[in-house]
Amino acid sequence: MPVTFFIPENITVHLGAPADSSASNVTVPFAQYIKNVASSEIFPTWPENAIRANIYTQITYALNRIFTEYYRAQGYNFDITNSTQFDQSYVHGRDIFQNISQLVDELFNDYIIREGNLEPIFAQYCNGTTTTCPGGLSQWGTVDLANQGYTPFEILQYYYGDDIGLRFDAPIADVTQSYPGTPLQLGSSGAAVASLQLFLNRISRNYPAIPKIPYTDGFFDVPTEDAVREFQRIFNLTVDGIVGKATWYKIYFLFTTVKRLSELDSEGIQLDVVSRQYRTDLREGDQGENVRLIQYFLSIIAEFNDFIPAPNIDGIYGPNTANAVSAFQESAGLPQTGVIDQSTWDALYSRYASVIAGLPPDYRGGGVPVFPGTALRRGMTGNNVRQLQTFLSKIADFNSSIPKVAITGNFGAETQNAVLAFQREYGLPPRGVVGLSTWNAIAELYNDLVLGEERSPGQYPGTPLAETTTQGGQS
After folding, report:
1. Which domain CATH number covers 318?
2. pTM, entire model
3. By residue range, what is the domain housing residue 424?
4. pLDDT (tens digit, 9 = 90+) per residue, 165-222?
5. Does a structural domain hold residue 279?
6. Could you tell me if residue 329 is inside a domain?
7. Is residue 206 part of a domain?
């Protein structure tokens, strides 16, 4: 769920009712589609303010269908139909009125939102004479309002309420489907996993049997797998805990349904819900709140890493911010471009979440092997994993609840089970992922043991270990 919704370059229209398999699909440029709809739905002789209001509505209606993947989430291979019983009129190959064409060229990447929300609203409308739609826009009613001197925006407010706004000049992109392309499963990470977790947590309000995921931070952990399995069980899908295309779109369809995103009284997707997910590339010369957010992340990380210079938190992506980004990229093993792309964002937020949410209030630091800066999870390899396995193997000698692990440098199922056992034993969230809090707890206990404190095998090795910070982030 990007914070800025992109206007698609193209839209695929089904020339018939949704279930009419004999009807063909056509893919046309989005602006050309809106010109066709406007020329089919309204009259070019109407007052310009009425025409503009109707074009805003037609754009927004189509974008809502695309944003919610209303048809694709149900297994169809198109974005919208041309049936006025279900959508809006599109007559393939028809002539376009010149004044409508010019107005669409000006307006096609503007759309209606509810203030504070992300998605294009479900801009329902009807002609207002032979058909009516309570709460929606009346096409012929817009003519009367325009003749009374209403502006296009005032016309829209008259029908959709005072809490609407217009998002202008949205970027244009080749919009792809929301499914990330490969299955999500235990050990996966990234923005798609974060969206999945948000979807499932919202669905669980309507289906309480689905367990809440405590950390919606983009790491596919054991609680996420448990929620997926229960969702699959409820909706008669293969119960394997893996989010393939069928499970993804069933989850997405249920999410848009319970949020009523395809209805006029939509619950909406608040901007602050997605404010910490990847938006778009940021680079030197950019300004705004998105820049301010990454500067904040970098400044927090810099408190714990002298290699990374802390940038000013001023919302201006200048040379010092670019230098801080490059330093962070070097520390994370990424190409040093100085540009925030998807990979850099994922690593940056992961590092920030580890620091800000995982650091215990009584963390002492001295003598504890330093957290490597990146959460360790199933599928990873390397010296950091080897160090973790060394810790766990030693702890297992003293506590039989922790299974013994081989020191291989490969984070597989055996290591994950040992991590889960440790987290359950010592009061940490059982996620099977080793973030800052889990690393520190394991490392401190290991240090106590190798420093020679006298404990018998199997004896509880000292003071209680508990996760004292439980909001957000990773364990």
Report:
1. 1.10.101
2. 0.54
3. 359-468
4. 888 877 787 666 778 889 999 988 877 888 888 889 889 988 999 999 887 777 888 9
5. no
6. yes
7. yes
pLDDT tens digits, one per residue of 110-161: 999 887 677 889 999 999 888 888 889 999 999 999 999 999 999 999 999 8
The reply to whether 450 and 347 lie within a common domain is no
Residue 41 and residue 88 in one domain:
yes
Residue 178 lies in a domain: no
How many CB atoms within 10 Å of residue 163?
Answer: 11
